[in-house]
Specification:
It holds the Pfam family DegV. The protein has two domains: 118 residues, Dihydroxyacetone kinase, domain 1 (Rossmann fold, 3-Layer(aba) Sandwich), CATH 3.40.50; 125 residues, 2-Layer Sandwich (Hypothetical Protein Tm841, Chain: A,domain 3). The strands form three sheets. The protein has a six-stranded mixed beta sheet, sandwiched between helices. A four-stranded parallel beta sheet has the order 2-1-6-7, with helices on both faces. The protein has a three-stranded antiparallel beta sheet with strand order 4-3-5, with helices on one face. Helix 2 runs parallel beside helix 11. The protein is an alpha/beta fold. 44% of the residues lie in helices and 25% in strands.
Length: 283
């Protein structure tokens, strides 16, 4: 029986991939100038980034229960199993809301096999998990096999990312305003990662050249076999920087593939323009 996949907008997957593979899609919400939008549906990331450069502070919120219910009901009515690979529960309430909605739907459709995976990943870290799950679906794996494999995949996902201006993290409450002020004066670039689904700072470096060198060093320290690795790079209105990082990664590690895609509004509203994030599997 066909197993269907569901993803949310915080996976930062290309729209073409979502559409070509008929993946159920759940947009998170972004509020700007008092108006609420659906990430990638009624607002695009470039609009958010320009607003942030103009000093505005967009807010984000989890996907609505109604939207989640509509997507889940579609597969329940088909009578076919589905897996939702959700944005980290440590960064959004979307996962918890999805679990609540799923329990309600199963009262009406008790035979509906719906699995909800807390990826504990963000952006293309979650997106790579969805891509991996899609391969398993095409290969005819059972829903139990897919769920087990995806959970293992997510547990190995490494996030390394940096932001161009720490002030954006301060506005979102991710770091103190004092740290942001000092960091901006000294051209300090933070390196952060995601640990158990939550944002954690690792190091601070001055200047992009040192930053890139250290990111490559960290990748070497954390990685295993690159020959079969797909590396993800997500970026925020800085594609040239992402392309430069891609070239350096390819020269240093020769991975199977490097995928680039823009960060969406839901993630970008917190990290700001100039964000660069790298995703790969730990051994």
């Amino acid at each position: 029986m066909t197993v269907h996949l569901i993803a949310d907008s915080a996976s930062d997957l290309p729209k073409s991939f979502i559409e070509e593979n008929r993946i159920g899609f759940i947009p998170l919400h972004v509020t700007l100038d008092g108006n609420e939008y659906e990430d990638t549906v009624t607002i695009q990331a470039d609009h958010i980034f320009q607003a942030m450069r103009d000093g505005k502070v967009p807010k984000t919120s989890q996907a609505s229960p109604d939207t989640i219910k509509k997507v889940f009901l579609h597969y329940a009515e088909l009578g076919e199993p589905a897996i939702y690979i959700a944005f980290s529960s440590g960064l959004s309430g979307t996962y918890q809301t999805a679990v609540m909605v799923a329990n309600e739907i199963k009262e009406e459709f008790p035979d509906f096999d719906l699995r909800i995976v807390d990826s504990k990943c963000a952006s293309l870290g979650c997106g790579l998990a969805v891509m991996y799950a899609q391969t398993l679906c095409v290969n005819g794996n059972t829903i139990q096999e897919i769920e087990t494999s995806v959970k293992s995949f997510c547990a190995r996902m490494k996030h390394i990312f940096t932001v161009d201006d720490v002030a954006y993290l301060a506005r979102g409450g991710r770091i103190s305003k004092t740290s942001a002020f000092v960091g901006g004066l000294l051209n300090i670039k933070p390196i952060l990662h995601v640990d158990d689904g939550r944002l954690v700072p690792l190091e601070k470096l001055r200047g992009q050249k040192k930053l890139f060198k250290r990111i490559l060093e960290m990748m070497k320290e954390e990685s295993g076999d690159w020959a079969d690795q797909t590396v993800g790079i997500s970026y925020a209105d800085n594609e040239d920087t992402a392309l430069s990082m891609k070239q350096q990664i390819e020269e240093a590690f020769h991975p199977k593939e490097v995928i680039l895609h823009s960060i969406g509004s839901a993630i970008g509203a917190h990290s700001g323009p100039g964000t660069l994030a790298i995703f790969f599997l730990k051994p």
